[in-house]
Amino acid sequence: MQTPRLSTRVLVVDDEESQRTALASMIALWGYGVETAADGQEALEKLAAFPAHVLVTDLNMPRMTGQELLEHLKEQGGGPAAIVQTAFGNLETAVSLIHDLGAFWFLEKPVQSQALRLLIERAAAQGRLAEHAERLERELSYRGVLGEMTGESKAMQAVFALIQQVAPSRAAVLITGESGTGKELAARAIHSLSPRRNGPFVAINCAALPDTLIESELFGHEKGAFTGALERRAGCFELAQNGTVLLDEIGAMPIGTQAKLLRVLEDQRVRRLGGKAEIQLDVRVIASTNSPLEAAIREGKFREDLYYRLNVFPVALPPLRDRREDIPLLVSTLLTDINRKHGTRVTDVAPNVTEALCAHHWPGNVRELRNVVERSSIVAGEGTIRMEHLPPGLGNSAAVARSAAAPAEHTGIALNREELRIPVGSTIEQTERALIELTLDHTKNNKTRAAEILGISQKTLFNKLREYGAADATSA
Q1: What are the residues whose beta carbons fall under 8 Å from the beta carbon of 41, sequence distance 6 or more?
Q2: Is residue 367, in this structure, part of any structural domain at all?
Q3: Which residues, 6+ apart, have CB-to-CB distance to 434 below 8 Å?
């Protein structure tokens, strides 16, 4: 038998002092660090200063029982691997604790020393494995990867930190961000880092369902509950039992359904349509939206009380245009997945392609980037993605600083096919005007396209042209 690591810590919880002391002395002889507690309440206090890897606890204790202790630890996001001591009459309860509260195992009293030693050793190994997995997740996030999300930018590192903070808890999360920023990936990352990782993850797109079906999809229905209900069907909440449900595009949910959802969230119970019995839920709720819910509240389209119930822990995902430095890493990650999916053998992208991708505005965010890389990989087939493999027109945004144009003599800034030369002493206004005029020349005075390339609104472009005294500043 392997010698346990001396750094492994065990907390013994038992209200009988003689039993508690004897167990602690025996476990200490096996080479473990040991602390004791007389009940569940004291155990929680001890765990704050003594983060144990293994918990050996009795069931029947004053102030806080062993079951209440495990329930409290689960609400906090988990705890040490728990070995439950039980008398014969509590055997059914102990088995239930393993199933419902994630206890590691149980032992009937009187405890056999060899059985206890073996269980502690296995529980400690499981705890070390969980610590290693958590540490690995942190290291990967520092390298720009968390779950299926990728990004080394400060903006994404901040998102990764928020996800790691909220994942172990049971708090509701509201993920905001434009379409294509990866809201579902963020929700899956929260689920995979939570104690519910082995439970189901169920996603429902509230915007994709007609009003007549959304309640059935959410809450389920009984046979005959409405026309077409030919059989009983479980809803998303029921299917997500002991796991996580994602309510995607929550802002599109009908106002009447919102009231019923709020009741489910508050009571943690659901009743199928046409049903009489309520079903107790243990489900973590994550919601996402691509439009500000505050505006919907002001317009009377979204319930304010539901908003506060969902927005316990907000996570905002940045658009791709605000983290362009992540594009090379994203492309590299996408290529690996796309090669596997389509059997292509694309290894990298040409430098000018990377430049073009980083210069594009990406209104569709990471989803649009994936589509572009996937299309370009299929066209290229193998080797390197080059400019001719990109979708028509995408490379134009990279040509802003390199395309042919007449010199902007009034600013002193030189422009040619290869570079934009800005002499020392040029003002921001001069540089901005030269870039706008160059882009308009490139688009043959198409102001809509020029605004898209520059990454500004048409209104901003028109205002700038008025400042420059352009005669056709208001025409597109």
Answers
A1: 63, 64
A2: yes
A3: 408, 411, 413, 415, 420
Two tokens at 472? 């056709």
Q: CA-CA distance, 382 to 384, in Å (whole number)? A: 6
3-state class of 275 per DSSP? Answer: coil
Section 239-261 average pLDDT: 93
For residue 384, is it within any domain? yes
User: Where a domain ends, among 299, 318, 337?
Assistant: 318
| CA dist., res. 69 & res. 85, Å (int) | 13
Is the preceding peptide bond at 51 cis, omega within 30 degrees of 0? no
Cis geometry, peptide bond prior to residue 80 (ω within 30 degrees of 0): no
Residues 357-366 as b or e (16 or more Cβ within 10 Å = b): bbbbbbebbb
11: three-class secondary structure by DSSP: strand
pLDDT for the residue 400:
39
Q: Are residues 167 and 285 in the same domain?
A: yes
Which two three-digit tokens encode residue 339?
A: 């090669």
According to the model, what pLDDT value does residue 125 have? 78
Q: At residue 276, what is the residue type?
A: K
Look up the pTM and report it: 0.60
Relative to beta strand 81-86, strand 54-58 is parallel
Q: What residues are paired with 385 via a beta bridge?
A: 349
Indicate whether 124 belongs to any domain. yes
Which is it for the CA torsion 33, 38, 40, 43, positive or negative? negative
